[in-house]
Design brief:
single chain; about 140 residues; alpha+beta; Aldehyde Oxidoreductase, domain 3; 5-stranded antiparallel β-sheet; 3 helices
Amino acid sequence: MLSLTEGPIDIAAVRRAVEQPGYGAVLLFLGTARDHFEGRPVVELRYEAYPAMAIPELERIAAEVAERWPGVATAVVHRTGVVPVTEPTVVIATGAPHRAEAYEANRYTLEQLKARVPVWKKEVYADGSAWKANAPTRGA
């Protein structure tokens, strides 16, 4: 499961996509819309993506995960459109025989998504808005 969706993300479906009887770890990462950024109150986020490029890039990332961590499954759903504060913007599920590779593969998937997948975010503040490109995580 590697997709974009305009509505709320079905977290349980993303989890089911990576569940297998031989897995001792299923890790879910939920990136959520927070109510502030750099001291400014955020009202909502608006995401746009270019599916013709985004989905193939997600597929490449999933293939890299499979190569680096054999036997690990990855699922990613990124939301587009308006995302209210506290709702998930992205869900990454990773299933693995053991927790160490689940954590490593999940983090790798997130960092690669942020660096490579064409998704753009508009932060809507109480006093205006600003577009932001996806960028590698800065510890947030």
